[in-house]
Amino acid sequence: MRALEAALGHDISDWRFIPYIQLHEFEALILTDPRQLASQFDNCDEGIARLETMVSRFTSPEHVNDNTDTAPSKRIIREIPEYQGRKASAGPIVAAKIGLSTLRSQCAHFAQWLDKLESLAAGN
After folding, report:
1. What CA–CA distance (Å, rounded) separates 94 from 86?
2. Cβ pair 80, 37 in contact under 8 A
3. pLDDT surpasses 90 at 1
4. Which one of 6, 28, 39, 68 has the largest count of C-beta atoms within 10 Å of its C-beta?
């Protein structure tokens, strides 16, 4: 991802463009704390427990994806089928409930991008 981001940055060649490519998909961020899915979906405790167990087998939530059938969103949908019709509405709410602190601590690549943005805002 870093090589692709560097190539994009070089190609665009504008200091205002700070490239970020999510390794797999947005739902990898949700997998930093699957328990927060309960804020949007009822009766999903068993599915959440299975998601937590599954995530624990990976280096980080950013690495969850073995193939097209096991992408993060498909794993969530398998455990919480209602997620499929509500990805666009529930996903951002769940990510907000998880919070940037947790997302940063679990997703190093995402955290590095945020650090870059914050350093620009601070004038560094």
Report:
1. 11
2. yes
3. no
4. 28
| Cα distance between residue 35 and residue 37, in whole Å | 5
Spatial neighbors of 74 by CB under 8 A, at least 6 apart, are 68
Q: For residues 72 and 78, what is the distance between their CA atoms, to the nearest angstrom? A: 10
| 71 φ, ψ (degrees, to nearest 5) | -60, 155
Phi, psi of 62 (to 5 degrees): -65, -20
Using CA of residue 65, residue 111, residue 50, residue 44, what is the dihedral sign? negative
Model confidence at 65, pLDDT cuts 50, 70, 90, reads confident
Token pair 């955290």 in the structure block, residue: 111
What lies within 8 Å, CB to CB, of 14 at 6+ separation is none
Q: Is 82 exposed, middle or buried (0-12, 13-18, 19+ CB in 10 A)?
A: middle
Q: Which residues contact 8 (CB under 8 A, 6 or more apart)?
A: 17, 19, 21
